[in-house]
Design goal:
9 strands; globular
Length: about 210
């Protein structure tokens, strides 16, 4: 399934726009074993399998200090390769019972593992509109503010699994589209420099 255009916190391998697209993953070995590993990692009681903050900071910081991760398997079908997981973040308070925890965000993570190609199609979406966001660096926009926490949730799971990203040629990626300007090329345009000459140089090298 793809993400609707109006969604602020959703990523999918089926989308073709920069905001919502997430590249598919690659697994190795038998599909059934890979599916069982997904469940094992994501439902780890320690929460190490889903830690978006640690993913963003390369392990230097963690979400587990302030948030508890509660995960459940909503659907699991080895015949089709489908895994549907529900991931809820709750404020961590060791003095409060699990029933009394305040859920801050819930995500639905859907994975479809292809049997022959060892490809994983991914979709992750937040159930509620995000209240916060994060600043990040972008080759296209320079510094960018994003509310799409679903991307960090999905990526943290992929990193925990140790699976690779499958490269996909896309029009919005400057690596595959010479007309897509990088942030410093846009800055040069404002300064009166004709950045199109850089396009010509790239075409000659290609």
């Amino acid at each position: 399934n793809s993400c609707p255009a109006e969604s602020e916190a959703c990523v999918s391998s089926q989308n073709d726009d920069e905001t919502h697209f997430a590249a598919p993953w690659a697994y190795s070995g038998a599909r059934a074993d890979a599916m069982r590993r997904v469940v094992e990692v994501v439902t780890d009681p320690s929460g190490r399998g889903v830690d978006p903050k640690a993913y963003r900071t390369n392990g230097k910081d963690s979400s587990r200090d302030k948030l508890r991760v509660n995960t459940s398997v909503a659907a699991y079908d080895e015949s089709s390769g489908y895994v549907y997981l529900q991931i809820a973040f709750a404020e961590r308070d060791d003095m409060v019972s699990a029933e009394g925890e305040k859920t801050t965000a819930t995500f639905d993570l859907e994975l479809l593992l292809w049997d022959d190609d060892e490809v994983v199609n991914v979709r992750c979406a937040a159930r509620d509109r995000p209240k916060t966001g994060v600043w990040s660096l972008s080759y296209v926009d320079g510094v960018r503010f994003s509310r799409n926490a679903a991307r960090d949730v999905a990526e943290s799971v992929r990193v925990a699994l140790g699976w690779e990203i499958l490269p996909v040629i896309s029009g919005f990626d400057p690596r595959f589209n010479n007309s897509k300007r990088l942030w410093f090329e846009k800055a040069l345009d404002f300064g009166g420099f004709d950045a199109s000459v850089m396009d010509e140089q790239r075409k000659k090298r290609g």
